[in-house]
Amino acid sequence: MIEISSLNKTFNQGRLNEVKSLQNINLKINRGDFIVVIGANGSGKSTLLNSIAGSISASSGSIKIDGADVTKYPEFKRSKWIARVFQNPLSGTAPDLSILENFRLASLRTRSKNLVLGINTAFRRLVMEKVSTLEMGLENKLDQPIGTLSGGQRQALTLLMCTMDDLKILLLDEPTAALDPRSAELVMKTADKIIAEYKLTALMVTHNIKDAFTYGNRIIQMNEGKVLRDVEGQQKNDLKMADIYEWFG
Predict the structure, then answer these.
(1) pLDDT in tens, 114-126
(2) Contact call for residues 153 and 131 (beta carbons, < 8 A)
């Protein structure tokens, strides 16, 4: 599904403040993998996600998605495969538009966009059905500006918006970092459900050890731009939370 070969990213190359953010990363990510990426600040976690998304260009190496070499593709060209949820709940939505209008924009994400959003009764019914699965009562508030909602509500809706087209890859960059514990739990359960239901390939960066232990079928620990550990399958199932804490000891 995703094949990363000899990937390197150096910032400020040749200068005194040079930073080798990724160093010879080699990863094969299978379709349906839910990978949790952990590591200390500056270990390269977000750089890895940004490289896959195309928001930064690699210094060397290659990235392939479904066999297509996308290494030189800009971010907008990769959007046919990839959707993202960011740390800040204010990102990824148009706050002055309604919930319904934001869902319509999401449905047009990989298609030619017209000035008219073209919302009809059938589309409203579809969005109501999706939003009702959150059990937050928001299906009755579709005309409310999305910017008036809480951070947890916005993150949950953003996850649902990712299912409005033929998405294959979901990148989650600390999606609960700005949320209170109750909202964070809702967002993680929503993400886990959506990833399973739509058979998505997902990578999530987090500092939350409990989430790393609870979610996903694979944990990658990064350190100084390198993959230090890659634990999956039964080996991941056999982990205890204390084992993960010991990695940082």
Answers:
(1) 545 678 899 999 9
(2) no
What confidence tens digit (pLDDT) does each residue in 4-46 have? 999 999 999 888 889 999 999 999 999 999 999 999 999 999 9
The percentage of the chain sitting over the pLDDT mark of 70, rounded to a whole number, equals 97
pLDDT band at 174 (very low <50, low <70, confident <90, very high): very high
227 closest CA partner among 45, 31, 41:
45
CA 76/CA 71 separation, integer angstroms: 13
**Kind and range of the H or E element at 51?**
helix 45-53
Exposure class string for 54-69: b at 16+ Cβ within 10 A, else e: bebebeebebebeeee
Structure tokens at 57: 């260009």
Interstrand relation of 226-232 and 218-223 (parallel, antiparallel or unpaired): antiparallel
**Residue 231 is inside which H or E element, if any?**
strand 226-232
Residue 89: what are its φ and ψ, rounded to 5°? -60, -15
Q: Which domains does the chain have, with CATH numbers?
A: 2-247 (3.40.50.300)
DSSP letter for 98, please.
B
164 contacts 117 by C-beta, under 8 angstroms: no
Quote the pLDDT of residue 79.
Answer: 87
Contact at 8 Å (CB) between 42 and 92? no
> Other CB atoms closer than 10 Å to residue 235's CB: what's the count?
11
pLDDT at 61 over 80: yes
Compute the Cα dihedral for 183, 184, 189, 194 and give only its sign: positive
